[in-house]
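REQUEST ID: PR-0412
SUBMITTED BY: lab tech R.K.
PRIORITY: routine
TASK: structure prediction, single protein chain
INPUT:
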Amino acid sequence: MLSFGLVVGALGLGLGLGYFAALISHDNIPNYTTMKREINSNYEASNLYFANDVRLGSMRTNLVSQSVSINQISPNLTKAITSTEDQYFYQHKGIVPKSVFRALLSSLTGIGVQTGGSTLTQQLVKMQILNSETTFKRKATEILLALRVDKYFSKTEILQAYLNAATFGRNNKGQNVAGVEEAAEGLFGVHASQVNVAQAAFIAGLPQSPSVYTPYTNTGKLKKNIEYGLERKDVVLFRMYRDNKISYKTYQAAKKYDLTKDFLPKANNPQQSVKYGYVYNLLTQQAKGIIKKQLYQADGLTAAKVNKDGALSEQYDEQAEQLLANRGYHIYSTINKPIYNAMQQVVKQQGSTLGQTYYDTATDASGNIVKVKEQVQNGSVLLNNQTGAILGFIGGRSYSSSQLNHAFDTMRSPGSSIKPLAVYAPAIERKIIGSETKLADFKVNFNGYKPTDYGSTIQNRFINAREALKYSYNIPAVNLYNEVRNQGSVKPYLEKMGITSLTANDYKNLGLALGGTDYGVTVADAASAYSTLSNGGTHTDSYVIDKITDANGKVVYQHKAKSTKVFSAATAYITSNMMHSVVSSGTASQIPGETVFDTTNLVGKTGTSNDNRDSWFVGSTPTVTLATWTGYDNYNGSSYNLTDSSSEITNQFWSNLANAVYNADSSVMGTTKTRKRPSGVTTASVVKSTGQLPGQLTVAGQSVFASGTKTTSYYAGWSPSKTKEKFGIGGSTSNYSTFWKNYINGNNADGALYGGEVIPDEYTEGNTTTGIGQSTAATTTN
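STATUS: complete
OUTPUT:
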């Protein structure tokens, strides 16, 4: 007859397992074949691919391993491992019942979730099937899987799998070690079948805390203090003696054995070479982010919670890195190898034309004066407007000289390249302007902020929006942004387009209209944002990793396009139509003469930040967007800038890049695809000098009929009014008074008051801020 305690124990065990089973009833529990493959899977570096399954290479890994059969492992090791890690390994069925009770109690009370005491079988499940994070649901899965493993496989098979999978610290090359064979070779220079009792006990003690007990540093040098590992070895020996696996005489002899003489001296660790360094780093970085997200989401956590806890975030980073480095994933990207290579050839051959290289001195981290080289840099990104797939990029002039990815990892002032995104498109969307609406370009003072046009000039006239964008006049853009922000922040537009680096301070300052920002934007984000305007006003998130499969080809991640409506199709069309004027006859008019393809459907915008610190051109066909930036890093305390001709140089470089892409694959550029005018676009024949319809009005008590030369203006679903006295955006009462005086006298058919002029220094000194106290990043741009 069973004792009452045994009955209660059996009942409790049954209830506990039932509770765990209910927790994971919807999980996909692997079958025998899958389990066998997974518990015996070897550590294998992940593989990286360009688009179209073109292999790039393997990920670097600092973990070495090799599998051996149980017959190639000394009984000293199997005895040591089972005694220290799982005393009842040969008696239990995969779990120790008391562990189930502890886990159940933890779930019900919320006390002591990390119960410890996992069996070898449970540890194998965690290493090879799950991962090491200890949430309760995963603990429940671990326990049920351990029971299944024990049912499917013999103790010998389980032990062999464990001894080949467990990690054992570092070897004498500083490499991380998995499996007892690598441990024996990397610590003592012998095979796993040859280790003596003391060596076996030392190896068996490592899995509990490999980083603490390992005798080697990450450089392969012996630690100054290896006592922790030696003390742990003695604990293992005692447990072997306790379990009658060694005699007392053997126990004492092994304790006295001088293990330090067996440790191998430091050896060189040949570094793995990296091909396509910028692509390699980008793919590994983004793949880690994807796997990390999957890990914490599987634990029921959000990005906000993980990012708030630095230690937790680092833990998931490490888990993701370990999985990617050792589990044989296949990471497929969108980077088109021929296109990428073509872009690299351009920067290699023509990068030196972008700006001068400077040689200087700087103080290093040790306080020493060292010689440094300040080279002009470039970052460029090519992506598909409809899918968001990044097809190619330039990370920098040379990966060997600078590993900083200037396409994805550096934020720079966008200069005037931000005008279509933050000013003109929102103004069109909010029905503030049409393409020919007049914008004021006169002296203006916004509480001490006094913008000027490029080169400290001013037009002194009302300019239509198309011309203001075409020639990148600053004052009209600031006047228009002031009107736009009075109707609400443009933040929703920019964030929907993927630009999330701007601050609250940026949005409230008028200098944003010219690219004045606290931090700036990346080239990748700029390209992605611009793609919106060539995709009917819909933004599709950019991406570089298409899918990730495990070592057996099972898809563990597949990119899913995320699209967001930002502007109406009409707004996107009108803004693009205006940007075509930039290319055909504006600040980028040199491009049509330098490209090998038809630019009829090309639109774009230049951008130059204050003092020529940054130079941009972002160009789009209906199919792709190509953004390029040029400037100096100035990380050594220097302040080198580009020349006054930087805009022309950048335009030339963009043309060469686009030509290289076109020559590599003409279909990618999509130059023959046209932009169809949406039904939401309305037009009106407006008076050229006022940007509004002809009509009668009274000015200063005098009746005036506004008429004259007409021009066609485009609108996002609305029509303009008849000409009013104050017909434009911005401008003072005096500006309008002078305009109408000249108009009535027949002196001003085009709306000019008088010729443009250079603003004296006493006026422009207010330009040291971009409005409301913000340090300038782009006050005079083109």
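NOTES: Confidence is low (pLDDT under 50) at residues 1-12, 110-116, 760-780.
REVIEWED BY: pending
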